[in-house]
Amino acid sequence: GILFNKGAGQHILKNPLVVNSIIEKAALRRTDVILEVGPGTGNLTVKMLEKVKKVIACEIDPRLVGELQKRVQGTCLANKLEIKVGDILKTDLPFFDACVANLPYQISSPFVFKLLLHRPFFRCAILMFQREFALRLVAKPGTKLYCRLSINTQLLARVDHLMKVGKNNFRPPPKVESSVVRIEPKNPPPPINFQEWDGLVRIAFVRKNKTLSAAFKSSAVEQLLDHNYRIHCSLHN
């Protein structure tokens, strides 16, 4: 009886075969604490609760929180579920071993980097994304989809495309096709300042058809570099 908010990315995964396949690929362990973002009505959540020590489900919509609570109320699974209500991008991530989620697609990029910069390290993340976003994550140098997202994700993690998921597996169906991706953070991470690195990549990819020489000669970039260099010199006397 719930009206789902498509604008907020509420597309509930309804096909149990896809749910089981995601859980199988996550290789969950009995001792695992799992982070789930956007649990919806709990189709994935309940299946995971049967296999792990604890699921921390983060949901922004109080109506769906109520549905999820009703679903496990009075069962042996209730004490294994912790629900956090709020915006995942504005809250600190808890400790977890793995992240398994059918994400609201509009938070895909900021959530991936929040995840990859999170400490302590987690084992892996199995995440549902819009197909094109997923293909950008795994794109190789020289291909059309290779971009800043590809470089930064692959710098910090190993990324694998696991499976395609058609739009009819959701209720209501989204307008786009979906894919499931596995992200495994590199531990230890590369010894770089990620903020500085991302600034460099941002300039390099600001116009894909420009040469690097032209990108770095633009007046805006020259002013930015000069400003940053002066700050660097003053900080280091």
From TrEMBL:
<keyword id="KW-0489">Methyltransferase</keyword>
<feature type="binding site">
    <location>
        <position position="59"/>
    </location>
    <ligand>
        <name>S-adenosyl-L-methionine</name>
    </ligand>
</feature>
<protein>
    <recommendedName>
        <fullName>rRNA adenine N(6)-methyltransferase</fullName>
        <ecNumber>2.1.1.-</ecNumber>
    </recommendedName>
</protein>
<keyword id="KW-0808">Transferase</keyword>
<feature type="binding site">
    <location>
        <position position="13"/>
    </location>
    <ligand>
        <name>S-adenosyl-L-methionine</name>
    </ligand>
</feature>
<dbReference type="GO" id="GO:0005730">
    <property type="term" value="C:nucleolus"/>
</dbReference>
<comment type="similarity">
    <text>Belongs to the class I-like SAM-binding methyltransferase superfamily. rRNA adenine N(6)-methyltransferase family.</text>
</comment>
<dbReference type="InterPro" id="IPR020598">
    <property type="entry name" value="rRNA_Ade_methylase_Trfase_N"/>
</dbReference>
<dbReference type="InterPro" id="IPR020596">
    <property type="entry name" value="rRNA_Ade_Mease_Trfase_CS"/>
</dbReference>
<comment type="function">
    <text>Specifically dimethylates two adjacent adenosines in the loop of a conserved hairpin near the 3'-end of 18S rRNA in the 40S particle. Involved in the pre-rRNA processing steps leading to small-subunit rRNA production independently of its RNA-modifying catalytic activity. Part of the small subunit (SSU) processome, first precursor of the small eukaryotic ribosomal subunit.</text>
</comment>
<dbReference type="Pfam" id="PF00398">
    <property type="entry name" value="RrnaAD"/>
</dbReference>
<feature type="domain" description="Ribosomal RNA adenine methylase transferase N-terminal">
    <location>
        <begin position="18"/>
        <end position="187"/>
    </location>
</feature>
<comment type="subunit">
    <text>Part of the small subunit (SSU) processome, composed of more than 70 proteins and the RNA chaperone small nucleolar RNA (snoRNA) U3.</text>
</comment>
<dbReference type="GO" id="GO:0000179">
    <property type="term" value="F:rRNA (adenine-N6,N6-)-dimethyltransferase activity"/>
</dbReference>
<feature type="binding site">
    <location>
        <position position="11"/>
    </location>
    <ligand>
        <name>S-adenosyl-L-methionine</name>
    </ligand>
</feature>
<keyword id="KW-0698">rRNA processing</keyword>
<keyword id="KW-0949">S-adenosyl-L-methionine</keyword>
<dbReference type="GO" id="GO:0003723">
    <property type="term" value="F:RNA binding"/>
</dbReference>
<keyword id="KW-0694">RNA-binding</keyword>
<feature type="binding site">
    <location>
        <position position="102"/>
    </location>
    <ligand>
        <name>S-adenosyl-L-methionine</name>
    </ligand>
</feature>
<dbReference type="InterPro" id="IPR001737">
    <property type="entry name" value="KsgA/Erm"/>
</dbReference>
<dbReference type="InterPro" id="IPR011530">
    <property type="entry name" value="rRNA_adenine_dimethylase"/>
</dbReference>
<dbReference type="InterPro" id="IPR029063">
    <property type="entry name" value="SAM-dependent_MTases_sf"/>
</dbReference>
<feature type="binding site">
    <location>
        <position position="38"/>
    </location>
    <ligand>
        <name>S-adenosyl-L-methionine</name>
    </ligand>
</feature>
<feature type="binding site">
    <location>
        <position position="87"/>
    </location>
    <ligand>
        <name>S-adenosyl-L-methionine</name>
    </ligand>
</feature>
